[in-house]
């Protein structure tokens, strides 16, 4: 069985022992293309048609220079482990056979190799990378830190990639199609609602907003003025206020303070009225 991968340091080279030309050549076989089936769980989902056509033209002239990596299946066919672009281009070029290196690999090793191959060659778009990490973590039952170790990335790098999966589907498509950058996308996650995320994502495209612009909009959205808390008034003050209005025949206002203290405001109309009010209050309760 092939040696288990231990991060990006060795990467795909570990599939070819010490990677010497003699050892590679001695392990290469020929297989009919029809005997090879793709790995439907590989991270990369989108292939640039123009780039594939150019690779197919090169293969027509020079053949497949770097062998594909496959593993045998129980039904007698082989599963593609690494080299799907070459496999697709070879089919376009009309080849019936391709060079392969056959390796007995576990499901875990296949998942790791597929992810590492694409990360090494920077073939994945940001969403494919995030989905690849999620698939790896779910299938292998591992943590973000363990996934990061397997592919030779830092844990924050993996965590940042996975954050993109929290975006609304429409915004994920924008990232996938390079309409907005991963930096824009991560900044959008600062909004509290999907509606704000989608609305701002459309603004990024329409108005060519920078990541800093988006971060500023997020900060502004957090500075919504707080509604003043309406204090629940003690019923006693309301009742006293009403009694004074009825007794004195004028506007009366009680302003509450802390610990049952406060200010009493009584309306008067002139000096004589004020004098009469003072006498009335002096005799109040006698």
- Name the helix and strand elements from N-terminus to C-terminus, one letter apiece: HEEHEEHEHHHHHHHHHEEH
Per CATH, what is the topology of the largest domain? Conserved hypothetical protein from pyrococcus furiosus pfu- 392566-001, ParB domain
Q: Unreliable stretches, pLDDT < 50, 5 or more residues? A: 1-12, 14-25
Number of helices: 13
Overall structural domain count: 3
The radius of gyration computed from the alpha-carbon positions, rounded to a whole number of angstroms, is 36 Å
Q: What's the helical proportion of residues?
A: 40-55%
Give the DSSP E fraction (strand runs of 2 or more residues).
Answer: 5-15%
Major β-sheet profile: 5 strands, mixed
What does this structure look like?
This protein is an alpha/beta fold and 286 residues long. It has three domains: 147 residues, Conserved hypothetical protein from pyrococcus furiosus pfu- 392566-001, ParB domain (Alpha-Beta Complex), CATH 3.90.1530.30; 54 residues, no CATH class; 42 residues, no CATH class. The protein is 50% helix and 12% strand. The chain has 13 helices and seven strands. The strands form two sheets. Strands 1-5-3-4-2 form a five-stranded mixed sheet, sandwiched between helices. β3 and β4 form a beta hairpin. The longest helix has 15 residues. The protein is rod-shaped, with a radius of gyration of 36 Å. It starts with 20 loop residues before the first helix and ends with a helix.
């Amino acid at each position: 069985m092939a040696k288990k991968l231990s991060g990006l340091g060795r990467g795909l080279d570990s599939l070819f022992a010490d990677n010497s030309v003699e050892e590679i050549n001695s392990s290469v076989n020929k297989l009919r293309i029809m005997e090879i089936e793709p790995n439907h769980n590989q991270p990369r989902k989108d292939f640039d048609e123009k780039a594939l056509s150019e690779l197919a033209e090169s293969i027509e002239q020079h053949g497949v220079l770097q062998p594909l990596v496959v593993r045998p299946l129980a039904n007698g066919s082989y599963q593609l482990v690494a080299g799907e672009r070459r496999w697709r281009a070879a089919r376009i070029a009309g080849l019936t056979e391709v060079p392969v290196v056959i390796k007995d690999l576990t499901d875990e090793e296949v998942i790791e190799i597929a992810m590492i191959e694409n990360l090494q060659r920077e073939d994945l778009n940001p969403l494919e990378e995030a989905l690849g990490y999620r698939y790896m973590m779910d299938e292998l039952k591992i943590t973000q830190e363990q996934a990061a170790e397997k592919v030779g990335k830092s844990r924050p790098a993996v965590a940042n990639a996975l954050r993109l999966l929290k975006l609304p589907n429409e915004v994920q498509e924008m990232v996938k199609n390079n309409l907005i950058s991963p930096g824009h996308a991560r900044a959008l996650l600062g909004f509290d609602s999907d509606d704000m995320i989608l609305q701002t994502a459309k603004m990024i495209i329409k108005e060519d907003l920078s990541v800093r612009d988006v971060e500023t909009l997020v900060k502004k959205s957090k500075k919504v003025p707080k509604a003043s808390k309406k204090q629940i008034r003690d019923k006693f003050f309301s009742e006293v206020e009403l009694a004074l209005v009825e007794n004195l025949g004028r506007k009366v206002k009680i302003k509450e303070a802390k610990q049952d203290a406060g200010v009493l405001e009584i309306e008067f109309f002139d000096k004589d009225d004020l004098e009469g009010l003072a006498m009335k209050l002096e005799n109040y309760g006698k």
